Structures are given as C-alpha cells and as structure tokens.
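Is this the right way to post structure tokens for a design question? Let me know if I should format differently. Anyway, here goes:
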C-alpha cells in the first residue's frame, strides 16, 4: 500500500467529506476534530469546510461544530 503525500484537489476533498456526512447522519465536528479525522492541515480543512458551507451542504452551529444542513 502506498500513501500519497500530495495534497488532494479541493473537489476530491469536498466529495469525500460530503460522503462522510451522508454516511453518518448527525455527524458534528469542530474544525480541529475534522483536521484529525481526515488528516488535513488547518488551511486545507478550513478551505473545504468553508466550501461546503458556501454551497449550503454544511452549517456551523452555535458551538462552532460543522453539521449537515437539514
């Protein structure tokens, strides 16, 4: 098994994270938790979470967690 160290394109990351939220209804993650779960650096994580908020797939709730928009 080869592990790539090259960054994933934003579109691929969005698709992957969107899939995680679809597979796990009720998933609530802070940016820090998301970084650890998906192995992303802070900048990449903020970019992808912001992109998913911009397309209204995610919202950021009152305690700062990202949840799927209902």
């Amino acid at each position: 098994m080869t592990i790539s160290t090259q960054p994933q394109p934003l579109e691929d990351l969005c698709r992957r994270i969107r899939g995680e939220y679809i597979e796990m209804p009720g998933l609530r993650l802070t940016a820090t938790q998301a970084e650890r779960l998906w192995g992303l650096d802070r900048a990449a994580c903020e970019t992808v979470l912001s992109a998913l908020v911009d397309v209204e797939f995610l919202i950021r709730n009152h305690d700062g967690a990202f949840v799927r928009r209902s």
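Format looks fine. Someone answered above. Worth noting: The beta strands are 28-29, 58-60, 66-68. The first helix runs from residue 10 to 23.
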